[in-house]
């Protein structure tokens, strides 16, 4: 227990790092996933920009990258991170790779939620002469907003999970903290402290997500 | 020139499966709809009514043929120009298709925003429409807080927002109960009479045609099999398929099965008298039966009123001497159409 008290500054540092990694990954991956998901949705057969070739390419792309276990993806994508950022290790490298992985995951969630929008509603917008871009931004996304918020909440929790392996490429965060100071030092109290903080973060975000989704759905 | 003019319009869809047959939804339809008409398009589901109406505002593109709206051929125009014309064609739907993420106000404002109207214009036009459909107090509500009839009234207001000259109604009352249906029909009638908006109404409900339509076309398997005045088509359908459809919405001549059921109860001759406004009155016909000493019982049928014109079919089981029956029927045949139920 005394060790834990000594480690408190490091614990707060790790908490901050986790929030930093996950927050930025959610931002970049969220935007990337939204774009890719919209691409999948609109090019799907019978939709606004239906295009078999583009849909096929995007679909295969997502199917190839999404199932790769993150720790392997992290290793495999390291050269790419190095090429883009100039550095293949540390928090920024993990944010880069995590954003990339999240893009593929988010895209499916976005696509699935947009598909729940009733085709009749889109038809109604078309019938008053609305253009396709306007329909996507003013009808399709707002109509699916509630489920989209829940989808992003789900992704946040998944990112907290994935970010725990940051230590493997020299990143920080609660995962690294738990392994380095808890597991490797035979100090379960330290491990459990990290777990507790992760639980609190996830709970808070889940409450926030539920609240926002309820507001969007008005129920 | 007709406001809406379809010339040899066809629409086929690619086969559902590889190697399957192409699906012919609309098969060589030619149809003129004049300004101010309320034109009913009726037929069984799957007859192509919904597709036809979506060709008019180019939600679906034709495979061949021309569709002219006020003289402009929609099929020859690029999407950008078609969108501008669509602002002049309102549409309402069976499932209302309101935007659930928007308030009633914003639903109705949507077409105006698409048209690029400014804030002030939008606010005053939406208020005007809300009071026209009687929902002024619901402006800030969301669609899920409304009843079915209220939803459709919002749908109508939204369709009218950009001041269209045409309103397309796709089974607009089919999801409503009878009382709400008549409210919505009354509202549509006002849309036609007060604003002079031409309405194309797709339906399989007799009520809609009876109270609203001035002209009607019957569709079957992608073709228009019969068209004309509502009264003409309903009181005296010519084609087999329109007869079949009319008989499902108007209780008229009994079908084969129904004749069999009637036969079990009535041994004698069974005949159907068809009355039409302008023909001879019922009392003259029944007087002929009484004069020849023929007894009768009305066993099937009904009398219909289409915008003040009356027609109907009454099926009678006759009793009395065969020669008397023959004599009475000969006289009656000179007044009206008599159909003999087969044995």
Automatic annotation (TrEMBL), chain A:
CDD domains: TM_PBP2
GO cellular component: plasma membrane
Bilayer-spanning residue ranges: 20-41, 53-77, 83-106, 144-169, 189-213
A matching Pfam family: BPD_transp_1
Record-annotated ABC transmembrane type-1 domain positions: 15-209
Topology versus the membrane: Multi-pass membrane protein
Keywords: Cell membrane, Membrane, Transmembrane, Transmembrane helix, Transport
GO term, biological process aspect, one: D-methionine transmembrane transport
Highest rank taxon of the organism: Bacteria
UniProt-annotated location(s): Cell membrane
Family classification: Belongs to the binding-protein-dependent transport system permease family.
Protein name: ABC transporter permease
Species per Swiss-Prot/TrEMBL record: Subtercola lobariae
Organism phylogeny: Bacteria, Bacillati, Actinomycetota, Actinomycetes, Micrococcales
From TrEMBL, chain B:
Gene Ontology cellular component list: plasma membrane
ABC transporter domain: residues covered: 4-246
Record key words, sorted: Amino-acid transport, ATP-binding, Cell membrane, Membrane, Nucleotide-binding, Translocase, Transport
GO biological process, one term: amino acid transport
An example Gene Ontology molecular-function term: ATP hydrolysis activity
InterPro entries for this protein: AAA+_ATPase, ABC_transporter-like_ATP-bd, ABC_transporter-like_CS, ACT-like_dom_sf, MetN_ABC, MetN_ABC_transporter-like, NIL_domain, P-loop_NTPase
A Pfam family of this chain: ABC_tran
Function: Part of the ABC transporter FtsEX involved in cellular division. Has ATPase activity.
Subunit structure: Homodimer. Forms a membrane-associated complex with FtsX.
Family: Belongs to the ABC transporter superfamily.
Protein name: Methionine import ATP-binding protein MetN
Source organism of the structure: Subtercola lobariae
Lineage: Bacteria, Bacillati, Actinomycetota, Actinomycetes, Micrococcales
Name of the gene: metN
